[in-house]
Amino acid sequence: MPNGTLVFIEHRQGAINKTSFEAVAAAQQLGGEVTAVVLGADAKFANEVSDLKVGRVVSAENPKLADYTPDAYADAFEQVVRARDPRHVFFPHTYQVRDFAPKLAARFGKGLISDCIRMKAEGDAVTFTRRLFQGKMDADVVAVGDGPVFATFQSGAYRADQAERGGGAAVESVQVEVGEVRMQPEAPFQEVKAAVDLSKTDVIVAIGRGIKSQENIALAQRLAELLGGDIAASRPICDAGWLPIDRQIGSSGQTVAPKLYIALGISGAIQHLVGMKNSGTIVAVNKDPEAPIFDIADYGIVGDLFEVVPVLTEEIQKLKG
Amino acid sequence: MKIVVLMKQVPNKDAVLRVRGDGKWVEEGDLSFEVNESDGYALEEALRLKEKKGGGEVVVCALGPQRVKSVIKDALARGADRAIHVVSDDFGQAGPFSAAKVLAEAIRGESPDLVFAGLQSDDHGYGQTGVIVAELLGLPHATIVIEVDWSGEQLRVKRELESGWYQWYTMQTPALLTIQSGISQIRYATLKGIMAAKKKEIREVQPAVGPGEGEFQQVERVYLPLKQKQTQFLGDGDAKRGAAQLAEKLRTEARVI
Ligand SMILES: Cc1cc2nc3c(=O)[nH]c(=O)nc-3n(C[C@H](O)[C@H](O)[C@H](O)COP(=O)(O)OP(=O)(O)OC[C@H]3O[C@@H](n4cnc5c(N)ncnc54)[C@H](O)[C@@H]3O)c2cc1C
Ligand SMILES: Nc1ncnc2c1ncn2[C@@H]1O[C@H](COP(=O)(O)O)[C@@H](O)[C@H]1O
């Protein structure tokens, strides 16, 4: 009988990725035996998480695991899963996990229940909730069939500080085999320092695809200037080349927390939200009343931004005298 | 040189979504459809590589009902050479493994040098299909690719990591890459391209496995997300009045003016 949960602990660029602890928290809340799994050339990172309250920490080791590659990680993790025969295998939904976990799951003839935001257990039945349509719908999903259930959790779904500590778990080193690695990674790097640092500004007026054309950006620009703030954007705006990439907010852009964040015509996909959800006051203008951005907004206007922004600009002008 | 591009048709981004009667998916009758965003970029990158190499073939492969033809025809008009349409009405809610299985079998015989997929679909958002296709075809892969350098013998790709970090990989070919939006600016179809597309081959094939076969996840219920935050909605449908109220609130409540 498969039982218990394996949790993948990610490290990247020489440090444990803290979102791994969110997956640990999920596994602990599910109950049953929890095993943390760390892959690496040696037990260095496994030792770093031995204070987690888990049954054990498995350190799967091979010199080829020194640098992350999907080939090496899938080979190594597959052996751990086969050896331990868990009911669940949990991961944080990071870029690294997106890169190798589907390959791993495919070796068990399945995919992942990916990017889950909730989980509910009733007896043996576990229901996972994941987002559809970039956050516009939720779906309750159950696993069917035999074998391990592979699930990934969206950043923020569980809290890292709720991962229970103080287990003094034994670190169990296992040597794993890794086959041919067909890709050679070079060292990670950052592009030359962004010309604008949006983390320092108090007011951000951010535009999304609702702005429709590059010419219309001037409208938002004027509002930003009046508020003494900066203009920023969702990814599609930068992809289209309408604004430079150093104005992009989100998981692949900058993370900001200004006093005021005004989102104009932005739907509120999770990859955008992670970059701005800690802002002081959040305003959203969107013509779709169901747009997910409203879920984190303090003030919302359902309507056409081309009607809202000119009036808003004018009114603020008046108030400022 | 042959590149296969996996292209999915998804509901329009601006679509108003309603839950279907059985509660397990959205009502599709009143939706219009478009190409998945990153797949459009994947096609563009394939076309550019072909142009740089001065030859070769770009083959589009899409799984879905007849309506998917509009995505295929548009891709051919932009410059793809031919297409494979895996025709089925039943894969709309398929999990990533069964979709990947069908796609992998549909392109296996092509023996491409590269396979491109989008990094994520805008409807299901699994973020997995490409990687699973790679595993099923025995290909190395790289995900979230934002630059491809295949000028010489070697394939080098730039991967996006989180929060502004990047990494180059040197890869063996054949390989599968999942392409990130924004990799290059997408061209429009020209009138000439649209005319030329009419003569291009669209081969229809049947899915290699049934829709439910080997399914590992099942949707129980689809619903609008529960709201977590108390948002103050202003203007009550009147955008201009909302704007005036907002200016006042920003001054008195939020104190940011
Ligand atoms: C790995 C990965 C990384 C990503 N990284 C990022 C990132 O760093 N940052 C980021 O932003 N995205 C990122 N994305 C993309 C993200 O998933 C979304 O696709 C993107 O944020 C959507 O941008 P948007 O809201 O501007 O566009 P859409 O989702 O198209 O939304 C446009 C909105 O405008 C509204 N609208 C249209 N017209 C009007 C009008 N006249 N008045 C008012 N409202 C109007 C619509 O109702 C809609 O809600 C990433 C995706 C992936 C998979
Ligand atoms: N039905 C389909 N037809 C063609 N390509 C698909 C299909 N489903 C998924 N894909 C490809 O797989 C990518 C990732 O999809 P997903 O795993 O659903 O996020 C998409 O961007 C497409 O390139």
Broad shape of chain A: elongated
Radius of gyration of chain A: 23 Å
What does the largest sheet of chain B look like?
9 strands, mixed
What structural category do the secondary elements of chain A indicate?
Answer: alpha/beta
**Which cofactor or ligand species appear?**
flavin-adenine dinucleotide, adenosine monophosphate
Beta fraction of chain B: 25-35%
Average pLDDT figure of chain B: 95
Average pLDDT across residues of chain A?
95
In whole angstroms, how far apart are the ends of chain A? 73 Å
Q: Which percent bin holds the helix content of chain A?
A: 10-25%
Major β-sheet strand ordering of chain B? 9-8-7-10-6-1-4-5-11
Account of the 3D structure:
The complex is a heterodimer of chains A (321) and B (257). Chain A is α/β, with parallel strands linked by helices and 321 residues long. Chain A contains eight helices and 18 strands. Chain A has helices at 19-30, 44-48, 70-84, 95-106, 217-226, 235-239, 270-273, 305-320; strands at 5-8, 11-12, 15-16, 34-40, 56-61, 88-92, 113-122, 125-132, 137-143, 149-153, 170-175, 183-185, 189-190, 203-207, 230-233, 260-264, 281-286, 299-302. In chain A, strands 9-8-7-10-6-1-4-5-11 form a nine-stranded mixed beta sheet, sandwiched between helices. In chain A, strands 15-14-16-17-18 form a five-stranded parallel beta sheet. In chain A, helix 3 crosses helix 4 and helix 5 (217-226) runs parallel beside helix 8 (305-320). Chain A is elongated and about 70 Å long. By secondary structure, chain B is an alpha/beta fold. Helices cover 27% and strands 27% of the residues of chain B. Chain B has helices at residues 37-53, 69-78, 96-108, 129-137, 191-197, 239-252; strands at residues 2-6, 9-11, 33-35, 57-64, 82-87, 114-118, 141-149, 155-160, 165-171, 175-179, 202-205, 217-223, 232-233. In chain B, the strands form two sheets. In chain B, strands 9-8-7-10-6-1-4-5-11 form a nine-stranded mixed beta sheet, with helices on both faces. In chain B, helix 3 crosses helix 4. The chains are: A alpha/beta (321), B alpha/beta (257). Flavin-adenine dinucleotide (FAD) sits between chains A (134, 208-210, 234-236, 248-253, 265-267, 269, 271-272, 275, 285-288, 291, 304-306) and B (13-14, 119-120, 144).
